[in-house]
Each structure stands twice: as C-alpha cells, then as structure tokens.
Specification:
Low-confidence stretches: 16-25, 131-143, 189-233
Mean pLDDT: 75
Number of strands: 15
Structural class: alpha+beta
Strand order of the largest sheet: 1-5-2-4-3-6
CATH topology of the largest domain: Barwin-like endoglucanases
CATH class of the largest domain: Mainly Beta
Number of domains: 3
C-alpha cells in the first residue's frame, strides 16, 4: 500500500475533524472494500503497530486509530468486526483495506474486492460477528457426531489347519512293445539265361554317406551287380555333366596364389539372386559384386588345387563356364 507524504498532510485536517465529530455521528458508509496481506507483513502501520495479516484489522482514510467497526459483505451478508490501525486505501472508489484474516471471513480473498457496508461495532470482540441480528459466520457447517455405539467384540476363529491329501502317484505301467522287424529288401534278379545289354555310359553311384563310389564296369553281368554287399546304404545314381569351362585356364595345383571365379554377371538382380541360391544349395560359398549396372556372382578365396572339383560342381549345377582371376 503506497503512501504519499503530501496526501497524508492534506488529509490530516480531515482526520482531526472526523475524530472530533465521531462521537456525535452515527457511523455508516457504503463502498468497495479491498484487502492487503503478506507483502506488508512485519512492517509498521500508520498507527505504529506492526502489521499482522492474521489479525482482524483494517486501514481507513479518516476513522481514528483504534475505532472498532463492523464490515458487512453485501453479496453474502457475512460480517466481521475489525480495528482501524492503518491509513488507506489510496485507490479511487475504495473506502477500506482489510487484513487477510478479515477478508477470509467475508469470503472475498479470491475476488480481491467486494461491495460492503461499514457500521460502528456493537461489541468489542474482533472477528466474525455472531448474534441474533446478524447471520452466523462459520467456516463450515457443524455436523453433530453420531452416537458412539460399542461394537460387539469380534471373535476371530482359530486358524483351521488344512492337511492336504497325499498325492498318489500311480505306478508306471509296463507296456511291452513288440520289436520292429525290418523286412529284408526285395532284390529282383534278372533271369540267368537273359543277356544283359551293354551299358554305353558309365554311371557313378554316390552314397548319401559320401562313401567310396561303386562303379559299374561295362560288361558286368546282372548277377555281379546283384552281388554288391548289402551293407552299402541307399544310393543315388546320376550321370555327371561336363565340368564348367574355366575361362583363363586352370592354374597348376601347386600354385600358392588365391583365385576368384566369376560364375555370372547379370543385369537383372533377380537372376543374380537365383544363381547365388543355386550355388549355396550345392555347398559352395558365393558372394555378390556390383560393377556398374551388372551384379556379379563370384566364388572368392579359392586355391588352385580345388578349382577342378569346383568346375565339375558348377557343370553339374548347370553353369557352363566361369571366368578365373588372380586375387594375390
């Protein structure tokens, strides 16, 4: 709350006159009230008292210090009795500044201002006004407590010990399994008196267990073929294709250099993928190389001694040729 020295000098005469006439005039004023609080806490008021926002005090421009007045909020008819101990408010249209405690009684803390009526107090007790002629101000409605009824003692039953029934594990049932008898393979033999035609090509019988292949020599009789030992696992017979042609020649087996075979160069990526997967399926380790628009499929890090076997595998897989290059 700002104070102007010049303004105080001007109103000094008014205060003196009002103090002299206060006993003869029935005090009643209507206007706007405001409130002030924490920012002035601990500072001296115009009367010399230390301002305490928790006390029921107020600032007025003319009323003598120590005057007790009752302030009524016209919006809710709440009333509070306060003591004048300061000067103010110095804002147009406002006639009194209340402490925060008084503003809380009138329920005007949140609004900041309220239309009020000032009257001379009929009691010396500061704070909310209680009486037959004024509404009772209470912070909250009083609710009568319900009569205390003694509850019956709670009987806690003794804990019931639950004994779980023993788990009965059935004895294992012995099931006799009849032994599986593998039927001996049925070998159809050609009639002895029928000549076996000569075999023009030499097929290679390669076992699935990669055992030593058994070759059928041209001119062998059917009986000799049937007499192959029975412990040889099931075999697959195929006629190998010619080995892939190595463009650039197969290096000597004793060469210590590393070589790379380019199996194909493709413009369509899908074709390169197909070639890659086909090489993987026969146990090779292919890789991709990109050269401009072309996708190359290569076999890298090869030794000279293994190139002939790889060439045969490429031929069996449908690759007719491969380009060889030295790596180092």
């Amino acid at each position: 709350m700002k104070r102007s020295i010049v303004f105080i000098l001007i109103v000094t005469g008014i205060i003196t006159f009002s103090a002299a006439q206060a006993a003869d005039i029935d005090l009643r004023q209507e206007g706007i009230a405001s409130w002030y609080g924490k920012e002035f806490e601990g500072r001296p008021t115009a009367s010399g008292e230390i301002f305490d926002p928790g006390q029921y005090t107020a600032a007025h421009l003319t009323l003598p210090f120590g005057t007790l007045i009752t302030v009524t909020n016209k919006q809710n008819m709440r009333q509070v009795t306060v003591k004048i101990n300061d000067r103010g408010p110095f804002v147009a249209a406002r006639i009194i500044d209340l402490s925060r405690a008084a503003a809380e009684v009138l329920d005007m803390v949140h609004t900041g201002t309220a239309p009020i009526v000032i009257e001379r107090a009929q009691t010396t007790a500061l704070g909310p006004v209680n009486g037959a002629s004024a509404p009772v101000i209470a912070a909250a409605p009083v609710v009568e407590a319900a009569p205390v009824v003694e509850a019956a003692p709670v009987i806690v039953p003794a804990p019931v010990e639950v004994v779980a029934a023993p788990v009965i594990v059935p004895a294992p049932v012995e099931v006799e399994v009849a032994p599986v008898v593998l039927a001996a393979p049925v070998v159809e033999t050609a009639p002895v008196d029928v000549a076996v035609p000569a075999i023009t090509a030499t097929p290679v019988i390669v076992t699935e267990l990669h055992e030593e292949p058994v070759r059928i020599i041209q001119g062998q009789s059917a009986q000799e073929i049937v007499n192959i030992p029975q412990n040889i696992p099931q075999t697959t017979v195929f006629y190998p294709a010619p080995a892939a042609r190595i463009l650039g020649g197969i290096p000597p087996a004793e060469s210590l250099k590393s070589y790379r075979l380019q199996v194909g160069a493709f413009l369509v990526p899908r074709n390169a993928v197909d070639a890659f997967e086909k090489l993987k399926s026969v146990g090779l380790n292919p890789a991709y190389e990109q050269n401009g628009e072309y996708y190359r499929v290569v076999l890298a890090g090869l030794r000279a001694a293994e190139i002939p076997e790889i060439a045969q595998t490429l031929g069996n897989s449908g690759f007719r040729e491969a380009l060889i290059r030295e790596e180092y």
